[in-house]
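TA notes, week 10

Several of you asked for a full example with nothing omitted. So below is the full record: structure tokens for the whole chain, then the designed sequence directly under it. When grading your own attempts, check the secondary structure regions first.
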């Protein structure tokens, strides 16, 4: 076997493992959604007003969100009106197309699944935000592991200095992955940690610097001021930093994730989303709703406990998995 064939086979194997992990992680969402959908269309041959009303309830109960649900229903109504007769057997494919369309409009990632950084940006600085308990620090650790595995040099900044557990947890991840963690301990200035992390990243030729921040929604003004200060001090080292502001949301909280997204998008310029804990919930529809309503690309999803279960989000793979029937 040639080297090219070896790497091609290895990549296909990884993609297959990721697809299986995604299928398993979305099991609860699929079970809840399709069992309700089957009951809604039993005995019916066409998509009529009654079926659409049922579908609306199903989408809302799957935490797709009211606005996004209304958007989907309107699109389907337009198709039914245009086609004159739409059978219930076509509903799966229509839904699949409309959901994929919404994700495309919100610029959600459509990538190969690689952990990479933009050419010419070094270090690539990611500021991670999100409330306590959503899996923020764990997501940072898994990101560091994935980037490190992809051959990238990584530096972490333990900027959630108001929670001792967050600093200690990130240091443990650093030891586990084999990447340096800049920390000043608890109750220190998070902006100072961010400054030193970006400084070390620049001086050591790091590819990626990932900076944690406090997971508090104390007041929007304080949060806004704190995140703005962190950005300003980073820019003393790297004028364009942070290159990405990643908001981590817990998918299992459903509508609470929408509220958190609202608060953080008001407080700072969020540029990407990571939605975690999708494997433990039937609320996977939250990925569709948040992506659609905030027009912020979903970049990562968490579908399990393993490092590899933090996946780069691919809208086509996600929609295919959501509608795959065993």
């Amino acid at each position: 076997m040639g080297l090219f064939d070896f790497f091609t086979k290895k990549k296909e194997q990884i993609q297959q493992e990721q697809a299986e992990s995604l299928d398993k992680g979305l099991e609860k969402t699929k079970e809840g959604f399709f069992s309700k959908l089957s009951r809604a269309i039993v005995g019916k041959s066409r998509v009529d007003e009654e079926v659409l009303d049922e579908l609306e309830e199903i989408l809302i109960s799957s935490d797709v969100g009211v606005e996004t649900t209304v958007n989907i229903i309107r699109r389907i109504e337009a198709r039914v009106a245009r086609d004159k007769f739409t059978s219930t057997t076509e509903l799966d494919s229509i839904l699949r197309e409309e959901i994929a369309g919404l994700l495309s409009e919100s610029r959600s990632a459509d990538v190969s699944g690689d952990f990479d950084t933009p050419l010419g940006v070094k270090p690539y600085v990611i500021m991670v935000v999100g409330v306590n308990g959503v899996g923020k620090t764990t997501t940072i650790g898994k990101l560091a592991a994935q980037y490190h595995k992809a051959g990238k040099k990584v530096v972490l900044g333990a900027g959630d200095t108001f929670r001792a557990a967050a600093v200690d947890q990130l240091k443990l991840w650093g030891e586990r992955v084999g990447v340096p963690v800049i920390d000043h301990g608890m109750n220190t200035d998070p902006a100072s940690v961010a400054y030193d992390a970006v400084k070390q990243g620049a001086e050591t030729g790091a590819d990626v610097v990932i900076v944690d921040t406090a997971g508090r929604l104390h007041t929007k003004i304080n949060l806004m001021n704190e995140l703005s200060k962190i950005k300003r001090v980073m820019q003393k080292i790297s004028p364009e930093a942070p290159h990405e502001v990643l908001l981590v949301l817990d998918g299992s909280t459903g509508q609470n994730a929408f509220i958190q997204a609202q608060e953080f998008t008001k407080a700072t310029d969020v540029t990407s989303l990571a939605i975690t804990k999708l494997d433990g919930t039937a609320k996977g529809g939250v990925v569709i709703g948040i992506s659609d309503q905030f027009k912020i690309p979903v970049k990562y999803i968490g579908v399990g406990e393993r490092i590899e279960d933090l996946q780069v989000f691919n809208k086509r793979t996600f929609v295919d998995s959501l509608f795959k029937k065993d």
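Residues 124-313 form a domain with the Rossmann fold fold (CATH 3.40.50.300). Use that as a sanity check on your answer.
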